[in-house]
Specification:
The protein is an alpha/beta fold. The chain is built from four helices and seven strands.
Length: 138
Amino acid sequence: MRFQPPRPKSDDERILPLINVVFLLLIFFMLAGKLAATDPIKVTPPRSASEGMIDTRELVIVIGANGDLAFDGERIDRAFLEETVAKRLSGNTHLQVWLKADSGTDSVQVITIMEILRKAGVERLKLLTIPAAVNEAA
């Protein structure tokens, strides 16, 4: 009984599983990855020494330098802000609300928006800022 010697495997056969794994990983990260949404208003937040992360389930209100407002990625008129926020908070008063104001925004405007949010039922409000460099904080 004579056996044939094993034929040598080509390089293509050895690299094919690696290519399959790379493509599967590429597809996985494309589907699982999340792109950050941009704000509808151009805002440069003020700098601060504290840091924190935003939970995507939380509400974000953006105030532009000229007083424009955006709520959860859409522009909104100041007259409808209280009503809209109250609707979103109905049944969940412990929801965190983030306020992102431009560093050039008048502080009176920011305080006015904070009062509107308090009337809407917001119990937890945080201001979004850009972390300051260590030498700037001193």
